[in-house]
Amino acid sequence: MKKPQIDFSDLPRHIAIIMDGNGRWAKKYFMKREAGHRAGAQALRRLVEQMNEAGFKILTVFAFSTENWKRDEGEVAYLMGLIHEYIQQYIDDAHKNNVRMRAIGDLNALEPSLQAKIADLTEMTKDKDGLLLNIAINYGGRDEILRAARALARHVADGKINPASIDELVFTNHLDTGKLPDPDLIIRTSGEMRLSNFLLWQAAYSEFHATDTLWPDFKINHLYEAVAQFQKRERRFGGRL
Ligand code: IPE
Ligand code: IPE
Ligand code: MG
After folding, report:
1. Which domains does the chain have, with CATH numbers?
2. How would you label 187-199 residue by residue, b for 16+ Cβ within 10 Å and e otherwise?
3. 0.85 exceeded by the pTM?
């Protein structure tokens, strides 16, 4: 693929990716699903490095959904092991790069050792000034909204918040994404045309880009292609230009 022309002075601030198609990629090459997930993790590593070098600021990736627990025990265990390994590699390499890492989702349901690794990596990289990589693990948009609603209900019950003062900004700040800007562009690989419970609140006015490329085959030029198309669109946010 030729490098698509994009305007680097006007990059989307926040890009989110639904990394889908690892299983189909493995099938295509007569491999086990696990091999697809491993190739997917490698594709993410490469992309993060290149996006950081190119000057992108925020990337949120969907690694494991609240619904992915429905898969075979073996696949779930493999995915969790892979996430663990991926986080450990980032810890080992943290001194070598300027990527900031965070995770969103209900992390309390993860193995305590994985929770501890995520906390370590977040702490180690919190003052870095490169790309912010936000990994969604055990993340579901509905679950995130419910957890925010529960937290707010607790504040109301404790007399800390007046229900009338709960506006969009207050609600947004109680989501896992906190003060991060909403994603400007959401990319989904493998040809599916759905959000699958990703960033439901935050996606209100995101531009959507679907590509048939399977996640392990997704390269920086596919990202540039999505950005090139994004830069040609007119965002109106319900108003008139
Ligand atoms: C995406 O690949 C990875 C996760 C959802 C964890 P899939 O495993 O969903 O791959 P397909 O959709 O079966 O091809
Ligand atoms: C969405 O992909 C979740 C992740 C990429 C982590 P799925 O493969 O789980 O979504 P569905 O089941 O096709 O909607
Ligand atoms: Mg899938």
Report:
1. 15-231 (3.40.1180.10)
2. bbbbeeeebebbb
3. yes
